[in-house]
Amino acid sequence: MNKLIVSFLKYIFPSLLLLMLLGCETKVIKVNEVEFFIAKEWKIQSVIVNGELVTDTDLSLYRLDLRDDFTFERIGIEGNAESGNWKLTAGLSQVVLFVNDPREERYLLIDLKIRQMELKLLQESFKDGELDIRYILTPTKAQ
């Protein structure tokens, strides 16, 4: 009986442990997986400024179409259209609009789900000081 236990501990147990370790792998989020969730047309569900929900502005016209070729088109709340390039940066935690353009805008990617994205504007207003502006966006089409 002792030989069986020694044999198990010496040969079989390490083999089982090695198989278990090989079966466990760390999930690494790749750029193309994040792009898959981000590259679609978004509309604003809500805007939160310094913790307060913005309710006095009509946001229904706003659209942000992030395309998988890293171009985008945005229709502002007043219906004005803009376009440019976008990218993911800072370890996939920032979305940058108008890449290499004086109008560049940076957003911290707070939360990303299939049907919702939360972005925080990473620029400060010179007039009002630093503002915490967050955008909750949802896809325009059912995904």
Q: What would your notes on this structure say?
A:
- With 143 residues, the protein is an alpha+beta fold.
- The protein has one domain (31-139): Lipocalin, CATH 2.40.128.280.
- The chain is built from 2 helices and 9 strands.
- The longest helix is centred in the first third of the chain and has 22 residues, at 2-23.
- It is globular and about 80 Å long.
- The relative contact order is 0.16.
**What is the H/E string?**
HHEEEEEEEEE
How far from one another are the termini?
A: 60 Å
Strand residue percentage: 35-45%
- For the record, the CATH architecture stands as Beta Barrel
What features would you highlight for this structure?
alpha+beta; 38% strand; globular; 8-stranded antiparallel barrel; Lipocalin; 2 helices; 143 residues
